[in-house]
Every structure is written in structure tokens, then in C-alpha cells.
Amino acid sequence: MQEWLWMQAGDLGRGIGAGEIDPVALTQCYLDAIAAHPDSDRIYARTTPQRALAEAEAAAERARLGTRRHPLDGVPISWKDLFDSAGTATEAGSALLKGHVPDRDALVLRNATQAGLICLGKTHMSELAFSGIGINPVTATPPNVNDPALAPGGSSSGAATSVAFGLAAGGIGSDTGGSVRIPAAWNNLVGFKTTSGRISLEGVQPLCKRFDTIGPLARSVQDCTLLLSALEGRPAPDLRGVSPRGLRLGVLRNVAFDSIRDAPLAAFDAAAARLQDAGARLTDITVPALDAAMPLSALLFASEGYGLWKDRIEAAPDLMFPQILERFRAGAQVSAPDYVAGWEKLYALRAEWQAATAGFDAVICPTAPILPPDVARMLSDEDYYITENLLALRNTRIGNLMGLPAVSLPTPSPACGLMLMGQPLQEERLARVAAAAEPVVLGAT
């Protein structure tokens, strides 16, 4: 049964459908692994074993009767601790929400439960989702799967590590500036950020509602598409017959390679060369609109985040990690006219981006320009924390600012990802492109 912990979610689902895997035994296997893992308390904020086993028993009965609801019916997954879960605390990695117990599941959790997926519990995260590094002294900092001394990436840190350490078949996270893709890249997984507005945020603790998105972290592109299918209640795209031959890929040269470190650069260049050898057509591009859009981050992200959380933050600021508190409070300096003007400018820049990239199947660049930083140094060196956190999110933020779906694929180099960005609301098309690129980027072909 231990091999189940390392199987792809889709393979587990197929095993259940074939009568080879019992959902109850599978769920118990994951619960036992969580209980036995020395770092489980740093990955899971809380588990839901009673719920999980009850859901597994129902899934087993459906499998027996031939009435399975979804390809992942009976497959156990984890949920970032900002998705409301009825009767179970949802604290978003913050002491400000300690003891907050909702009486209703978030809509995406209800959809996934209706599809038959098993809820193992809630995973740790950066405080109020406002960090790409994943360090959280208030609750817990999960270990990076490549080196426990390194940051796991955030804010969906526990979502990623629950999968990377074999403690869930998939993890559901959120992405406002890179919070699905950074921890996916740094823990050798696939992370799929959806377009803002594509998936309902009902029952999800917000950071910036106009940028917040929901997305899965898993072992493959196919697993991510199956998880998205369950979250949305719609069929997954057909990934059969995909090929890298003939793909038109724009290599984004402005912004994305500034101050990049040697290892991510080498990993990207090697993956890009393999894609070209496999028949993809790569073209270097620069998009001037992006240079104008990047400075808007400080104007738009912090101001909305502070606007949403100001009253709760200022009622008890001492409960917060100082670095996160400072990032929120920066939003207090933004005027309403500047905020409105910033959005109007961004809408125009998004149109320029789409015009410049419309001829490509995807635009690619390194997921992150840096490797995971050392946690101890981040906590002792304030300047280092600030520079590394902002640099970690620099490339992924492109997708959020431009309003795009994006996928991070792992490369053979640990903690180095390659990101593909598609067109807004074209997740199905991007999934086929990513599935075609996946084995080539990973060096499997």
C-alpha cells in the first residue's frame, strides 16, 4: 500500500474504478502516513479523519455499485487553510483568525466533495497568503522536500509539501501573485494557476479579490486538470494526442531574466533546448507593456489587501509576523484615485500584452529566478527577506498582472520550474500545451 502514496491521482482513480484500490484503505493509508511523518504538524494545520473516512466509505460503495461520480472519486487530497470547511477551523495561517470555525464549506470544497474527492485536512500557509516564500513563524513553516533548511515556497506551502512528501494525492491552493506556482516549482511539482474569475471564491479567505485565483498542485498536468474539473464541476480537457511538435512558444526576455541566478537559468535553457529539439518553435519576445505593468504591483496588491483586512489587523497587530504586517500596512499609503488610475492603466496594458502574444500557444519563462532561500537567514536578515521574497514572486506575478492562466512544470533540476502562460480563460488550451511540453521539460523523452 505504501506505493499508493507516490502514485499520481489519476492512476489512483483508475485503480479505484478497476476495483484494484479500496478508497477506505487508500484514505487510511494516507492518514497513517500523516500520523507517522515527523514533520506532519508543519505541513497540516489540522486533519479531518472522521470526514475523510466517511467520504471514503461512500466512495467505496459507489465504486462497488458502478456509480462513481468523477475520475478522482475516492482519491484523498489536501486543502490550503483558507478554504472554509464546515465544523473545522479555517485560520489562513494567522492568529487573527484563530478559532474561526465556519458552518459551511467553500463552494469549491462542496464541488469536490460532490465529485467524490476525499478531504484529508487543511494545510499550513503563509500568513493571510501574503508571501511567496512560505515562511510562517506564527503557525508553522513546512520543510522543503529538497532540503528542510530551505523555504518551501508560498503561500500554498503546505499544499505543495503535502503532495511532495506523499501525504496527499493532490493539494488545492490559491494564487494571488505566484502562491501555487512557486511552491510547486520549489518542491518539484506541477502547479496550475487559473484565470481570475474562472473559479468561484465563495467561502475562500481573501487577500486581493481582484487577483486571487484557485489552483491545484499535483504530480502531473493530467492530475491538475482532473482536480480543476472537480473544483469547477465540468469535464476535464482531453489530453490525448498532444505533441510538442509545432508548438509556438514565445520566450519572454524582458523582466523575466533580470537578476536571475545560475541554476534556474541553466535549468530553463536546457528545457528550452529540449523543446526546440522536440519540434517546438521558440521565438524570443519582449513585451514593453510588461515593464510598465510591474511597478503597479505595489500600488494594487497591498492597497486591496489592507483594505480588506485593515480593521482586523489594527485591532491586534502584535499577533502578526512583522514582515507580513509591514507589507499590509504599505497599502495604507495608496490613495483611492491612484488605485483607480492604476487599474485603468493595467487594463490597457493587458490589452497590449494580449495583442503582442496572440500568435503563440504559450509564453514561457523560468517560474522563479531564484532557488529557495535559507529559512534561518530569512528570519535573521530583514533586508534579505524582503529582496528574496519580492524576487521569488517577480516572474509569477506576470501572470497575475496580465490576468492569465499559467502552469509551472518541474525540470530535472530540483526546485527549478518552467512556466507556461496562456490566454485568459483558455485553461483547456493551456492544459494541452502544458501536457505536450511536460515530458520534454522533465527530460523524460
Describe the structure.
It is a single chain. With 445 residues, the chain is an alpha/beta fold. Helix content is 43%, strand content 12%. The chain contains 16 helices and eleven strands. It has helices at 9-17, 23-36, 40-43, 49-65, 107-114, 157-164, 181-186, 221-232, 262-277, 288-293, 296-315, 322-329, 336-357, 375-380, 382-401, 427-441; strands spanning 44-47, 76-80, 118-123, 171-175, 190-193, 213-218, 248-252, 281-285, 362-366, 406-410, 417-421. It has an eleven-stranded mixed beta sheet, sandwiched between helices. Helix 9 (262-277) links the parallel strand 7 (248-252) and strand 8. The longest helix is centred in the C-terminal third of the chain and has 22 residues, at 336-357. It is globular and about 55 Å long. The mean pLDDT is 97.
Question: What would the keywords be for this entry?
Answer:
11-stranded mixed beta sheet, 43% helix, alpha/beta, 445 residues, 16 helices, single chain
**Unreliably modeled segments:** none
* Number of DSSP-assigned strands: 11
Distance from N terminus to C terminus (CA atoms, Å) equals 29 Å
From the spread of the alpha carbons, the general shape counts as globular
Structural class: alpha/beta
Q: Summarize the amount of helix as a percent range.
A: 40-55%
Reading the helices and strands in chain order gives HHHEHEHEHEHEEHEHEHHHHEHHEEH
From the alpha-carbon coordinates, what is the Rg to the nearest angstrom? 20 Å
Largest sheet: 11 strands, mixed
* Average pLDDT score: 97
Across the major sheet, the strand order is 1-3-2-4-6-5-10-11-9-7-8
* Number of separate helices: 16
